[in-house]
Amino acid sequence: MSVIMILFTFLGGITLSAQSSINGSFSRRAGTIETTLLTFVTGLLFLTISILFFGHGDILDIFKAPKWQLSAAFLGTIYLLFTVVAVPRIGVIATTISGIIGQLVIGMIIDHFGWFGSLEIPFDTKRAIALVFMILALYFIYKGNKRAN
């Protein structure tokens, strides 16, 4: 089952980068905020239909959730907005790697302290080395982008 989850997230990463590229290009024509809105409205329609046919929960439970958990929707919106702004300026791969590095940093902090009910996984040398390699990858990719311009 874990291999399937890795495959799902791999495919999610592919779709995220494709979306970033398309949104970055589209934002030049329609505007950054407008492109972000279109993405979320389309997602709303798609998910509404999905809930109608496949939903198993109770949508009204969102009103019972702790307020801090609802912040995830705002954070997702900010992420998408920042991505739409960044892609036309630094390219898809630099934007994607920057996002991944941000995810790694906060993910390592969350894991280390076990925030939000997650597993506690201590920050160690292996994780630090992985982070350094990601930062080096970003550096070389970004410098490669500069050379191409």
Summarize the structure.
The chain is an all-alpha fold and 149 residues long.
Could you name the key traits of this structure?
5 helices, 2 domains, mainly alpha
* Biggest β-sheet description: none
Low-confidence stretches: none
Helix content: over 70%
Q: What class would the helix/strand composition place it in?
A: mainly alpha
Question: SSE order, as H and E?
Answer: HHHHH
Rounded Rg: 18 Å
**Total of domains:** 2
Average pLDDT figure: 90
Q: N- to C-terminal separation?
A: 44 Å
Beta content comes to under 5%
Gross geometry: globular
What's the total number of strands?
0
Oligomeric grouping of the chains: single chain
Q: How many distinct helices?
A: 5
Can you describe what's shown?
This protein is mainly alpha-helical and 149 residues long. The chain folds into two domains: 1-89, no CATH class; 91-149, no CATH class. Helix content is 82%, strand content 0%. α2 crosses α3 (67-90) and α4 (92-113) packs antiparallel against α5 (125-148). The relative contact order is 0.09. The model has no long low-confidence stretch (mean pLDDT 90).
Mind sketching the topology for me?
Elements (H helix, E strand, L loop, with lengths): L1 H29 L1 H23 L12 H24 L1 H22 L11 H24 L1
Helix pairs in contact: 1-2, 1-3, 2-3, 3-4, 4-5
